[in-house]
């Protein structure tokens, strides 16, 4: 898994998707403002913050320009990151990736003279990944074999780079044009049709538990499970989040939304369950212990852990490769995710429709992302599950520390 995550293409996709986070969070902010100001959300017929009501439609439009244009931004960020890893010019890489994505997804004008922007949303995210990798590989191929237009040394570098990228640009967009316009092949529609059964089956409690189990197993071996594995499912999580947000914009209650795992990979349910169960109990147990090392580490890691920054505990205690704590670490987060999924799937519990920063404390993450304070129940239950899982193993770990100190 470590080797897989370090592949230039895979790490570029991960970094590129992370590069869209500011856009996603900005869109989520406007969506939250829309919910607070829209009288159509809820059953009372009144807005939670009435003075925002006149701006509710404008808030919704800003969400469209950000979260609903996610694939468009990803095409640029992924291309930029992949180009840099292949030692290509970053700006040129971003532009060729973006241009190829445009050509590959826009099949001419409609009857009104406009273009269909459906592919710019989360539905085109997989195509954005494919076109980014393809276009940068074309750019790399032309550079490697020196198939470029060379300008005299007296020409400014910016102009020289533009001309040297001309041939790969023509090659990349021509291939995209032939596939989309000449062959009339709409890959966005084809991909979504092909992936719909997979996406639908991927969202259930058992799958969520399986993903968390593998993620925590990697963490327990000293590998960054979120960065290596869980983030690969970000496209699914963003698509579900986008669909939930659109339904909220139509007046659907957060509790009636279809996607429980919306935001998977960046935010959402998993951020409310895993670290609350797998790390928070350890911080409490360390603070309650008389061992000077544990108490000091507990106070040092308290604030970061509150914001789900868990590296001080995972690598400082450590949990990684710790035979006493690995088992409860893995199973506490896995079990709490299963229980959390079951609770959030209930018709009285709100689902995520807004992307809240991953470092938001879990007891605030749920209410902000779902508009439902009842999500705090999931946080409380996850902490209790984690504490129950650790209690049989914690005394054994303390004894091992005492034995080491005695020796």
Helix content: 55-70%
The largest β sheet comes out as: none
* Helix count, DSSP H or I runs of 4 or more residues: 21
Q: What portion of residues belong to β-strands? A: under 5%
Describe this structure in words.
This protein is mostly helical and 407 residues long. It is built from 21 helices and no strands. Helix 14 (269-278) packs antiparallel against helix 18. 43% of the residues are buried. The mean pLDDT is 86.
Give me some keywords for this one:
single chain; 407 residues; mainly alpha; 21 helices; 0% strand
Short structural summary:
With 407 residues, this protein is mostly helical. 66% of the residues lie in helices and 0% in strands.
